[in-house]
Amino acid sequence: MTSSAQLITSDRPQEVGTTIQTTCCYCGVGCGVDAQVQDNQVVSVSGTQAHPANLGRLCVKGSSLHETQRSPDRLLTPMLQGEPTSWDTALDYAAQKFQAIIAEHGPDSVAFYLSGQLLTEDYYIANKLMKGFVGTANIDTNSRLCMASAVVAHKRAFGGDTVPGCYEDLEQTDVLILVGSNTAYAHPVVYQRIARAKELRPEMKIVVIDPRRTATCEIADIHLPIKPGSDAFFFNGLLQYLAQHGHTDVDYIAAHCNGFDEALAVAAEQVPTPEAAAEVCEVPSGDIEHVYRLFAAHEKVVTVFSQGVNQSSSGVDKGNALINCHLATGKIGKPGATPFSITGQPNAMGGREVGGLANQLAAHMGYDNPASIERVAQFWQAPNMARDEGLKAVDMFDAIHEGKIKAVWVMATNPAVTMPDAGKVREALQKCDLVIVSDCIGNTDTAKLADVVLPASTWSEKHGTVTNSERCISLQKGFLSPPGEALHDWQIIMRFAEKLGFGEQFNYRHQVEIFREHAALSALDNNAEVALRGFNISALADISEQDYENLSPIQWPVTPESPEGTPRLFADGQFYTADGRARLVPITARLPVKTPLPNQVIMNTGRIRDQWHTMSRTGTASKLLGHVDEPYIDVHPDDVARFGLLEGDLAMLKNRGSVYYGRVKPSASQRVGEVFVPMHWNGKYAASSCADALVNPYVDPICGQPEFKHSPVMIKPFRQAWNGFLICSQDIRPECEYWAKITLDTGYKFRLAGGESLPCWRTWAHAQFPEISDWVTVEDSDHQFFRTAGFVGGVLQVMFSAATDKKSAPEMRWLEQQLGQATDASGRFAILAGIPDAGVEDEGAMVCSCFQVGEKTIRKAISDGCDSVEALGNKIKCGTNCGSCIPELKAMLR
Amino acid sequence: MSKSKQTLLIVGNGMAAGRLLDELIKRDISGFEITVIGDERQGSYNRIMLSPVLAGETDVPAIIGKPSAWYRDRGIRFVSGVQVKAIEREQKCVLTTEGNRLRYDHLVLATGSRPAKIPAKNQQLENIYSFRTLRDVDRLLNVARFHDKHGRKTDTDALVIGGGLLGLEAAYGLALKGLRVTLVHRSGWLLNRQLDKAAGTYLQRVLESKNIHFMLSDEVERFTGSHELKAAEFKSGRSVSCKLCVIATGITPNKELGLTAGLQGDRGVSVDAYMATSDTSISAIGECVEFKGATFGLVEPIWHQCTTLAERLCNNIKRPFENSPVPTKLKVSGVNLFSAGEFITTDEHRELLYCDDQAGIYRKILLRDNRIVGAVLFGDARDGQDYFSMLQEKRDVSDIAQYLLMGRAFYAASSDEPAAA
Fold first, then answer.
1. Boundary-marking domain end, from A23, A48, A68
2. Which of B300, B336, B410 minimises the CB distance to A881?
3. Which residues contact A807 (CB under 8 A, 6 or more apart)?
């Protein structure tokens, strides 16, 4: 059964230079991509002109998709306990152990941990298998780390997890407020659209609310660098201001909202004036009032919020405080007026639609309603329907650590790096009886801890739908055949289901069959009589395979009434609550759980422009490491001085027994006492620079989303005894206290540093490459510098340079280009110098060895008029010492 | 003619004498009657080129810088094949072995040196040679010419004693002629006066590939044979049969002529900074000289001696001679080495080392107070002269230290752009 399904993607006809329209695999913007395909390879990519998300644009990550296809770490066969094996053996082992654990400890002793990288169809059947057949809701996803707060805020306010607006609203608005959202880096194409809109309509006001002065501030009229976590104070203050100054939409509230008075009462008491907001937010009250006035004065206001709001111990409340303001002014459901949650991952929204989270059921139905559980059980014909919510991410890994969960399947994500307190997550996975990982890369930090690793297809191979931040469903197309024995995630789940004895209910021949079922479920009892649900794609429930293959991007709901999709919701003031009215939630704003001690700083985490998540894909393209190539720490100059740090030197952050090493970047964009670190680096790219390992596992009590943006940590300089770099053709793990790996076109570069004792550099370097015997070495008895280069067959394989001071190991682009190149003996001088030969003219064969005068120089002197040995001697000294070369000089003169 | 000319008598016609003549002519010899007495028959020739002659890389006429006609054309009297027996200082004349007396107003001793002796017994046996003169080379070439490459009955064809510059060049020349050569050296590595052990070992490796076999840390105790050389017995107890032997363990200054005449001196004839001996009418230059306790075996300082003396004789200008260090080179094709200044690393040095085993390139620079005090190069000697200049200039090299070993092309670039990163 699976083989026929496989044929559909792998045998898709491929002419020379075919263009395939697909969807990008990175962020939640969900851009359309035109991929040029030749010989089972993507040769170039460009943005799809007609795609509503990007209208032809692509960011640097998207533009490099074709450069990240050939990962040397690509997993090609199933692995069992570190050994390659067959699919049957791997799945038999996994399924039998899974069943045995369920038999002994019950269904809640097993769990799935999924990812916003999965396609909707993959997500759907994983959710169905666990909640309907295995019988547990222990299925959570890395979306918990990014979107859970917004999901619950939406549900509380709108009665469903629904983003009301669309990207066009961001362009059409008069006041755009970006809260905790560095779109310039995290959603570059959306940022470009905003920047363009601002260019065309300079009167459009842009406000950035972020403790950091991010790159997004470049286009901002106002930046409010608020105290981290004080967002809800700001919005409570806004609600109170709006009410106080008569800017609420009394009619709208009366017609469409509940809870306004209660919400206002709490807000007014907590933040009675802009001055009160200013005091908590630590920004001038004049600036706050200015933004309040802008919000009040314009009909068209969009508030975009992202991880800065969500990744918090009070993320849900922050979301509702923000939405409250839009509801109280009726600035929702209209062009250019909406709250807008922008997601991080390509298909976080798809996961939310199928209900692939522990506290959701399916298709926008929850565990709060027994009728929903019954409805879904019937639809699935589920024998073991889970009746209660499962464990959310942090609790799930805690339960694994405690031994309550004994088997876990991690799909397409890397929790050993990305979870808060990641060190504990590693421990948990080490303890766990059965760890299954399905991924396209075989050596992620998580896969290294797994018993069974299953090779999955990746972007350009997998085929199915994704939904972006504006509810737009696009087809991510499979047009290359998966390498080796890799299978699509839905195929893997289906085979596993078959091994568990559910082959009959998991018998899909094509993704479209799953999609139709998903669409049918979204339509099931979805009406005003029972309960209206936002997610409804009933019009696609009978989609033909051909229409599915040619699916144009479309925004849900897609119903018989709106077959072309729905750009904006709630225009009619009707919400998905029981009474159809939106709900303003009274919010008592809270600051983050932990305040820093005097010797601590607050660590904030986030994305950098050119990397994606844990770099498994983007880390393989040298181009994407050109912007930032090493873990770093943004530190305010005052803190640089206070903690004795030095620009460009390494510093250490410490918390929860974990250490993050990064280069110190003094930055006035930081607030004093706060540092920013990128979240991407992990054990594959650095010795110890995993930011999330330092994050406290404090979560939002309602949604379980961790507080990634606010971790008090120790900071101190890393006193290094030496530093250096290593470039090499093969990937290694240097045995060194600090290293960071940078992918080159020709191989890899490592920045290195060691604390305290100085190793014998020669012994150290040569021990990293035992197979190389041809070494050239430069040594200094004072240990100020050391260099060595290793060759195989005359071809440069390794160059290592170390120094006790900073300037003695300068890196050169030129050197990186020499990797893999054959070099002669004098070329080796250049390699060791690290710089190309400075163009000192080749002298030709040495004639006068006393004064080192070569044949070419002599011939030139002769042609310039020297006609005797004496004349040559007077001009270029040759032959005037020992005279041995005089016969040769005479011969040349003849 | 106004004033009568001064009689300038030069005893010796080696490289120093030849160079002195050049320097005098370059200035003005109209005030002199010049006579040169040499015990070799040829005019002045380039003794350094004996090795290439032996190796067949050049021939005899090419290295004779001054044939008889040269002297004649310049009005210089050239007395060849004659040895001076004594100096009669009161009479201001010299006595030749033939019993002739030649008068001088000013006498220049340029008597050179002779091969150093070794303590081995039975050195009188036939086929034991030195490697010093054209005559030595002639004899060696003759042996090589009639050497039967097939009827080999001995362990080796030629035994060369001495792992210094001369010994190595002799060994190389003989090997190139097709002889099997064994070189014996008292020290643990070759050129131990110029190289450290590592460079000496690199050198050995290259020469071994050129068919020279080495016996290090050993000495000949005695030669054996009734009339002709048959074998050599060593201090280590080993014995090696051979057809010929070349002793090239160094040189001894020919100081006797001067010292017997009562001139001051110990290892050589003592001179002051202007090349004057203890007798103001007698000067001395070259390998027979001792200056501040040092003797000389390389051309460069001797050239400076000639300049100093010519300035004084012709122009009465006193430009003092300074004995500065001289770099070493070896005239063996395919062997590039360079050594100058200190070459054994001690705790007081900062040592910079470049090793490329595969390419056979070794470079060592010794620094003291960030200044080059020594350099040893093997395999690629191109930058030796540059290092040597910096050594002489006492240049502070701390800013270019990390590029120094890779050569001028790199440290020149790095000092132009210090921000290479």
1. A68
2. B300
3. B421
